[in-house]
Amino acid sequence: LRFTFNERSNPDDDSLGIQIVKDLHRTGCSSYCGQEGEQDRVVLKRVLLAYARWNKSVGYCQGFNVLAALILEVTEGNESDALKVMIYLIDKVLPESYFANNLRALSVDMAVFRDLLRLKLPRLSQHLHHLQKVANREAGGNYEPPLTNIFTMQWFLTMFATCLPAPTVLRIWDSVFFEGSEVLFRAALAIWERLGERIEDCQTADEFYSTMGGLTQEMLEQNLLHPAQLMQDVYSMAPFPFPQLAELREKYTYNITPFPTAAKVNTKVNASGPSGWDSEEDADVDDDDSVAAALGCLGPLGGLLAPELQRYQKHLKVEQGNIAELSPGAVGGAATGSGRAEHQAAVNSMMLERMSTDITALKKQYGRIKRRQQQQAMRLCIRTDKCLATQVLASQLNPSSAVINHLLLGRKPRGPSRTFRPGSAGSPPLPPSSSSAPRQPLFSPFPSIKQPRKSLAARNLGLYGPTSRTPTVHFPQLSRSLNRSSAAGATGRR
Amino acid sequence: QMGGQNLRKEHLYKVLVIGDLGVGKTSIIRRYVHQTFSSNYRATIGVDFALKVLNWDSETVRLQLWDIAGQERFGNMTRVYYREAMGAFIVFDVTRPTTFEAVIKWKEDLDSKVMLANGQRIATVLLANKCDQGRELSNNGIKMDQFCKDHGFVGWFETSAKDNLNISDAANFLVKHIMATENDILKSVVPDTISPQMDSSRQMSCSGCFK
């Protein structure tokens, strides 16, 4: 956390910073404009930059400014709470690659949504399809994109923050945090149902788009949709989880491939970025960062990390077995968030490539792998050497237990050992790091020891269910939501 | 081709507005369509759409303006909206040289993804936006003319969405070019056969791409 917020600049920051700065006043929220907005913009920038540093493979995506602005409003300007909520939302609640990898998962969801529209609102769907076909014919058989796409894209990427009034948006967000990303589909279906009549009057695609121009304005400014009614629709349209949704998502994940393979995309995206992954230091920083932040930062969010830690546990076992047998591919899996899988895949494939060409590089890689494994093992090691992280973790797999946070957050990690940091003058709490990286950030792996177990932001957003301090949670079916809130943890653990 | 055959002649043109993030694409469209400027708006997420209706002599021109997000990662999502465009604005920010450097990239991308029925490139106008901010290009006018010639722009304008400078001029200029190329296409396509008079450069450019 401290790393992501630190004042020192990273090589990536320049181009990232420009993109972020250009969007700071463009959140659609007037408090970020003009001279009075200066302070708010500074805070917003810090949060956006912090997220981009936290998850480099996602970085900054246009639309994050809108998300972060709303989150900051709910956390009343508390940056680190806002960051945590943002990480939880983007890395855990929404599908992976919603905002990265050319927004692959988003395009999957756009296709899935069209199928759901056909199932739930067949008349409207057919009408839209007809308009699209006519437009195709007029364009000489050229491809006309499905008409709902530009709206689905905007609605899903900002979770409706740019198209509905704030009170409605907050209700939808509460519901997304409770029930998962499927709420986006439900809300979109509810909206289209409401708009349906006026759209069925449109005779051409052009007319549809201009009608939608007016309707989106009305939706935003005039409460065209009553929030309570909308939420009623969201909950009553289908049982949870939405029937067929998982299958459809899977189907399109494998069927939509006008895109290059993940690893390729990653390389391309990053080659165009300022730094790319051209150095191992880069990857090291990433891993260190994610370990520290995963424990220090996400720790308060309870059992979220279970799958990662489970995977990590496996690695520790492998390591204990025989380090030399470790495949280079194993490096990536350790304690990284699932949102980083692509990144790891790219790093791994890069490593593989190098190894096949250079035997000395191979040796070096193994050394590096070993070192990193040791570093990570050590970080998870609690002072009493007997209590290995693996042992803690076993008990941690119990869903209701928050022991790991308690145990890990309460203690300092062991300081770096000389064996792999020869001649280092670093002070003990510093994490061991690969020696010669000049831009190695100085951060403590457990910077947030005294963090509250439950973040205020998450509570405000309804992560732990409505409380008296939660001004924005007004569920129409409060009892139902409360029942579900106990299951919210389960959603997160998935 | 069908749009031109109504009784009251009405043209429907699809126009793209592209360029780097934050150069002012949306502001230009808002100024042109809604006659407003505000720094309080939101960044374009993906693609946006606006319609401007012009009275053009005795005819009506409906301009579909497609506002394409500037961030690179939206590329795969937004490029499908290039198709069937008849014209484009490529916008850069006179206060940020990198956005001008990106102009060539945007132009190449455009030309590789959309082309007229006769295989020619669509009419594209270069807009040097934010000229209210004190950095004038006028001194470089000749160089800019040459740049446009070299890279296939039909012209360029210094614009300011804030001060409402040159925006409708630029749009009229683009519409004029679109109409001219439309006439060209009608002439060359209507006979529906390859005419021997067709000039060689045209034939070369894309006879193989026709489907």
TrEMBL record, chain A:
Q: Which domain of life is it from?
A: Eukaryota
What InterPro entries does the annotation carry? Rab-GAP-TBC_dom (IPR000195), Rab-GAP_TBC_sf (IPR035969), Tbc1d30_C (IPR032738)
- State the GO CC annotations: endoplasmic reticulum
User: Which Gene3D superfamilies does the annotation name?
Assistant: putative rabgap domain of human tbc1 domain family member 14 like domains, Ypt/Rab-GAP domain of gyp1p, domain 3
- Using the UniProt annotation, give all residue ranges assigned to the region (Disordered): 413-494
**Residue ranges, compositional bias (Low complexity):** 422-438
Q: Which residues form the Rab-GAP TBC domain?
A: 1-180
PROSITE patterns linked: TBC_RABGAP
One Pfam assignment:
DUF4682
Biased segments, Polar residues type: 478-488
Extract the SMART domains matched here. TBC (SM00164)
Q: What does this protein do?
A: May act as a GTPase-activating protein for Rab family protein(s).
Q: What is this protein called?
A: TBC1 domain family member 30
Automatic annotation (TrEMBL), chain B:
Q: What is its main location?
A: membrane
Pfam families in UniProt:
Ras (PF00071)
The answer on whether this UniProt entry bears the keyword Cell division reads no
Q: Name the GO cellular-component terms.
A: late endosome; lysosome; membrane; phagocytic vesicle; trans-Golgi network
Under the heading Gene3D superfamilies, the entry gives: P-loop containing nucleotide triphosphate hydrolases
Question: What one GO molecular function would you report for this record?
Answer: GTPase activity
- Say which domain of life the source belongs to: Eukaryota
Q: Which InterPro entries match?
A: P-loop_NTPase (IPR027417), Rab29/Rab38/Rab32 (IPR030697), Small_GTP-bd (IPR005225), Small_GTPase (IPR001806)
The record's subcellular location field reads: Endomembrane system; Membrane
Topological type in the membrane: Lipid-anchor
Q: Which GO terms describe its biological process?
A: endosome to lysosome transport; phagosome-lysosome fusion
Could you list this entry's UniProt keywords, alphabetically sorted.
Answer: GTP-binding, Lipoprotein, Membrane, Nucleotide-binding, Prenylation
Record keyword Lipoprotein present = yes
Record PANTHER family: RAB FAMILY (PTHR47981), RAS-RELATED PROTEIN RAB (PTHR47981:SF43)
Q: What does this protein do?
A: The small GTPases Rab are key regulators in vesicle trafficking.
Instruction: Name the family.
Output: Belongs to the small GTPase superfamily. Rab family.
| Protein name, as recorded | Ras-related protein Rab
Q: Which organism is it from?
A: Xiphophorus couchianus (Monterrey platyfish)
